Amino acid sequence: MDHTSRAATAAPPPSGTGASPGPRGLMLTLATLGFALNFWAWALLSPLGPRFQEILDLSSFEQSLLVAVPVIVGSVGRIPVGALTDRYGGRVMFPLVSAATIVPVLYLGLAGHTTFAGLLIGGFFLGIGGTAFAVGVPFVNSWFPPERRGLAVGVFGAGMGGTAISALTTVNLVKEYGTAAPFVITAVALAVYAVVAYLVLRDVPGRTVSSGSLLSRLAVTARLAATWQASGLYALAFGGYVAFSVYLPVYLRTAYGLEPADAANRMAGFVLLAVLMRPLGGWFSDRFGPVRVLAVALGVVAAGAVVQSFTPDLMPLGTIAFLAMAAALGVGSGAVFALVALITPPERVGSVTGVVGAAGGLGGFVPPLVMGAVYGATGSYAIGLVLLAVVSAAALAFTLTKVRAEISGHGA
Predict the structure, then answer these.
(1) Three-class secondary structure of residue 209 per DSSP
(2) Which of 115, 199, 228, 372 has its C-alpha lying 20 to 30 A from 319's C-alpha?
(3) Tens digits of per-residue pLDDT, 151-176?
(4) CA-CA distances (angstroms) from residue 71 to 74, 103, 121, 387?
(5) How far is it, in rounded angstroms, from Cα 105 to Cα 182?
(6) Contact by Cβ (8 Å): 349, 141
(7) pTM here?
């Protein structure tokens, strides 16, 4: 039995997958746009980390905490938001999350950026934008048949490129027009999207609605083996992407002495490559199976981390190592949600996505703190990168054993 047939056997399509390609394409486009805009907002503090460190005289740990707080809040918030999406659908949740994110964005731009405490408070609520991921995955998943979900969810996942928008524009806008500029522009974009999403987005006809209370639905989700297997893998794949996207400017400036704008631009290149590779990760998984794709991706991450632990010259070896890891993390992130679509009941996709997405975000929260602490103690980032290589190798072994057995148990 080929992989496409196995996917269809593992998860019967919801009634709405008979929808015509036109509405599917429109819904996927709007969901991806909403994800990108909310991630743009979610990542606003990262490019400005070095600037705030100088202005407010922050320690390395304080700077790391500043960029990590939105990550952890956005990650944990995905758990209830994913479950709520199972119940109320993306038609309600996308405009709601986008509108709510406007408040901390404006607060940070107009008042909260003048003190460390204000930045932490604003960053905490900025995490709302990071929960949009848990809205989009079940929404997109419901619009597409099983054999196309890997690619569709991968395309949606490319919306994580919103962090690249932030990296490319934030520092330059602050230099030209002042600190408030990128925040106000982002708030306006979110407001426009919230209105458009409210007017245009529609849930798939015949959508399977999850019943029961929020707590009971989360309890059922917690008992699924697929939830925790995918969570562990996503904590590494997407968590690694998030960690590099928020901490790479600091790393490049400290380890290689780059200027803030140059470091932000290089981080944007890392992000863009990861974003472009994520749909390919879903597409490869549809064709070859997520286990094979994840195995290759995790092997590349482990090798790249080992190389970079020696802090080689940035050109060419350091750049090659980072770009290889970016591509692998993007592919791996796409493959994880191809796995989720393959072995998760349709009415649980939002809840599972919430937990898995939370794990991914939390995976991005820990490394910046570890890197900051390690560098403060040793003056080197080598230990942190060696840890990444070890964890990647362990995840590779886990994928080839436990995850492969779980897929086989679903008849795939």
Answers:
(1) coil
(2) 372
(3) 888 889 888 778 778 878 888 899 88
(4) 5, 17, 13, 20
(5) 9
(6) yes
(7) 0.73
